[in-house]
Amino acid sequence: MHAPVTEALQFIDLNLSYILFLIAVGFIGGLVSGFIGSGGAFVLTPGMMSLGVPGNVAVASNMCHKFPKALVGAIKRHRYGQVDIKLGLIMGAFAEIGVQVGIQVQTAILSRWGQAGSNLYVSLAFVSVLIVVGSFVMRDAMKIKKSGGDVGSAPTLAKRLQKIELWPMLTFKTAGVRISMWFIVPVAFATGMLAATIAVGGFIGVPGLMYIVGVTSIVASATELVVAFVMGLGGTLIWAYYGMVDIRLTLLILGGSLFGVQLGAIGTTYVKDYMIKLVMATIMLIVAVSRFLALPQYLDQLQVTSFGDGVSTMLTQLSFYVMCFALLLGAGIILFSLFRARSAEMAAEQASMQA
Amino acid sequence: MTRQRQKEVQAQEPGAVEKAREASAMAVSRPVIIFLTRTPSLAESVIEYVVAIADRLGLKIVAVFVNTMPQLHQRSSFKRRMERSAAIFSEKARTRGLDFSAVRDSGRLAVVVKRLCHTVKRVEFVLIDHGISRELVASVAPVPVFSVLSTGPVAGEAGMSDRLPTLTGETPMVTQQRKRHVVKTITFGAATAGLYGAMFAFPDTVMHYWTKGGFYALLPVATVFAFSYVHGTFTSNFWSALGIEGSKAAAKKQAEKRSGMVETTRKRPDTRPRLRAE
């Protein structure tokens, strides 16, 4: 490990509007994370950078708020009996390896093609993974919705994999799954790789748990919080070792996100299983569009295309707004579903009391 | 429990052990269900619940009214209220043709339960009223312990309506929980404000040490852990105080699923063929 950073980093001065912005984005991000297990923090890094926070400080401060948020969310959802701790810890351990490999890949790309090459790689990873996985999850969510919300049994691939008796076989009681460790390792590894690349490992972790391991979306999204905690803690220790964490930013985001993550976790107890898939797929697909809009800037920098400064700057700004829209839409769907289902349950309760 | 303390408890209610023995003797022919309560004024629904169980299982009822705080409760008042509840209990049991006896005792619950289980014969199980810790009773009772939950109107006390649903449709239990959440919200909210105040009151010092790196990396990590506990508890209670909690229907489903899991994980009988010596 390298020596800690000794020179003074540029930390921003906070004013009231910045504080309110961070708390608000933290709340919305927390709400989404509590509901789909991950994916609420991707707006924060570019959001903080737009306030003038250096990139590495933004990433470090974001990561430092993610693991306590995931911890609080996991505890809350564990109370609802949705978390498989054993599965989460095993996934977390292998995801950590994926994170380290992902960092090495990033470093190699950075040294060979520079910052623009690295950004292009990140954006391409964003677009390709989110479009492929997002459209698959969306198709599945719509299919379940059409069939009246009946989840049915585990997906075909997961069923087949569960039948393969390959030592060591692991049994997960909360998830209700018995599967070989060798099918969990690639999912966890890919989760870690994605987390190191686009900072949201859950976009692979949750679908992987659902379609490869065969866990329900409620348990998958809850267990992903444990994975996020393990990965976040490891990452934070490294960033904090280099003195990159701006604790003020972290605490402000955490201030909002802990309200959100609790509400998101409560939301999962009211909605049907497919709603988690629907919200996740919606966010993934819109974020894919957002990152697609950011591609011309990096292609220009690598002199592959020549869109011009004006166009690429405009598209980059548009990309950020689209990303914010994805998060707001996700949060809106969660809040709407939560309060609609809650009022329906309360009305049914009152009716039964009167009867 | 020392012998001295046992004597002391027995001295508080001199007839309790004898009454329990009598009740047991009467019930030699029938197994007994011990109903344990700390409340002298029982809810009518609780009485009905206990009587219905005893009727279904063909058991005799021994209702034990325990005054756990004899120093605070006036004994005469406890006795009067208990007798009123016992009369209603007895009447309801009589209409179903069940044997019933009431016992009044005082002292610590664990001691009373231990003594009862030794004096009363053929105890099938202990049924506890709400407000009594199941773990505590189960730790001393050699028989299974079950609990009763009820929010119905109180028998024998027309003036006491603390268990009736309120005008907002909430039962007092819910209201009490809500109050507890409000208290916790205020306590942990103040603690959270204090923590934020401390961190932002000295930004330069905090930023100097928290960004030093090396072993100082533990400072931000420890800080967020502390915040996640204090602020996390605050936010959790905040939503609960506002009445925004997890779905009850989902919790019920989860409980059913769990009980189903217990059923499915029951050990299968060993049906393998065995060699037999001729």
List keywords for this structure.
heterodimer, A: 355 residues, mainly alpha, 77% helix, B: 278 residues, alpha/beta, five-stranded parallel beta sheet, 10 helices
Describe this structure in words.
The complex is a heterodimer of chains A (355) and B (278). Helices cover 77% and strands 2% of the residues of chain A. Chain A has helices at 16-36, 44-50, 55-79, 85-146, 156-163, 181-198, 202-213, 217-241, 247-268, 273-301, 309-354, and strands spanning 169-172, 177-180. Chain A has a two-stranded antiparallel ribbon with strand order 1-2. In chain A, strand 1 and strand 2 form a beta hairpin. In chain A, helix 9 crosses helix 11 (309-354). Chain A is globular and about 65 Å long. The mean pLDDT of chain A is 86. Chain B is an alpha/beta fold. Chain B has helices spanning 3-12, 16-26, 44-57, 75-95, 109-119, 134-140, 172-201, 203-210, 218-241, 248-264; strands at residues 32-37, 60-67, 100-106, 123-128, 145-147. In chain B, strand 1 (32-37), helix 3 (44-57) and strand 2 (60-67) form a beta-alpha-beta unit. In chain B, helix 3 packs across helix 4, helix 5 crosses helix 6 and helix 7 runs antiparallel to helix 9 (218-241). The longest helix of chain B has 30 residues, at 172-201. The chains are: A mainly alpha (355), B alpha/beta (278). Chains A and B meet through helix 3, helix 8, helix 9 and helix 11 of A and helix 7, helix 8, helix 9 and helix 10 of B.
Task: Tell me the layout of helices and strands.
The complex is a heterodimer of chains A (355) and B (278).
Chain A: H1 16-36, H2 44-50, H3 55-79, H4 85-146, H5 156-163, E1 169-172, E2 177-180, H6 181-198, H7 202-213, H8 217-241, H9 247-268, H10 273-301, H11 309-354
Antiparallel strand pairs in A: 1-2
Helix pairs in contact in A: 1-8, 1-9, 1-11, 2-3, 3-8, 3-9, 4-6, 4-8, 4-10, 5-7, 6-7, 7-8, 9-11, 10-11
Chain B: H1 3-12, H2 16-26, E1 32-37, H3 44-57, E2 60-67, H4 75-95, E3 100-106, H5 109-119, E4 123-128, H6 134-140, E5 145-147, H7 172-201, H8 203-210, H9 218-241, H10 248-264
Parallel strand pairs in B: 1-2, 1-4, 2-3, 4-5
Helix pairs in contact in B: 3-4, 5-6, 7-9
